[in-house]
Amino acid sequence: MTLALLEEEILACRRCASALCKFDVEPRPIFSGGVGYPIFLLGQAPGKTEYERRAPFQGDAGKSIKAQFAACGLSDFERNVYQTSVTKCFPGRRPGAPTDRPPSVAEVKNCLPFLARQLELVKPKLLVCLGGLSWKAFLSMQEAADPGFCSREIGISHPSDVTVPHMVGRRFQWRSTIVLPMIHPAGSANGARSRYPVLDRESKVLLAKSLAELGLRDL
User: Fold this and answer.
1) Looking at the DSSP assignment, which residues form a beta bridge with residue 41?
2) Structural domain of residue 108, as residue ranges?
3) Cα–Cα distance, 15 to 215 (Å, whole number)
4) Quick check: 92 pLDDT over 90?
5) What's the CA gap between 174 and 125, in Å, rounded?
6) pLDDT, tens digit, 9 for 90 and up, residues 27-42
7) CATH for 11
8) Is 68 within a domain?
9) CA dihedral in degrees (181, 187, 191, 195; nearest 10)?
10) Which residues of 43-56 are buried (b: 16+ CB within 10 A; e: fewer)?
């Protein structure tokens, strides 16, 4: 299968339509990029701004991570970064609240096979995982390919047990791809940044280091 055919399949997916309908949103898978893009940016789920603009990383969190890449030496973000998320559709708002609803276990399960195939077809040099849901997605794929990885490498029994100290400030390997977990740039993650400032800074140092090592700076 080509990436174009896979993306057609993702865009046509309606597995979560009944769940999304309860939160007054329609299925609208969001991603961008192409085969051979050297960087793969994995968020948690599209937000309301992404839903409205039909493009990934358009809100404040997107502006923040793009600025971080620029500060690390990547000059052309859009031509080098494949942009997607663990779940492809905006999950809607929490009832009676201005914040986004976290995707359900079922929604994540429906989307994970798409993510695995996106990675296989894009073949990035660097996978940047933003936030806990993306770390868990990576660990789920790694654990399936290499049983015992979570216990052996980070000292937890299951991906759902992962916390910031397990992941942030470290790099991992997914096949031929370097994997860099980072705290999500959204304002809702300010608490994690304030609790783990050293790890947060170290992840940004590792981003710059990874771009340099892979020859991706000033692209």
Assistant:
1) 83, 128
2) 3-213
3) 39
4) yes
5) 10
6) 999 999 999 999 999 9
7) 3.40.470.10
8) yes
9) 50
10) bbbbbbebbeeebb
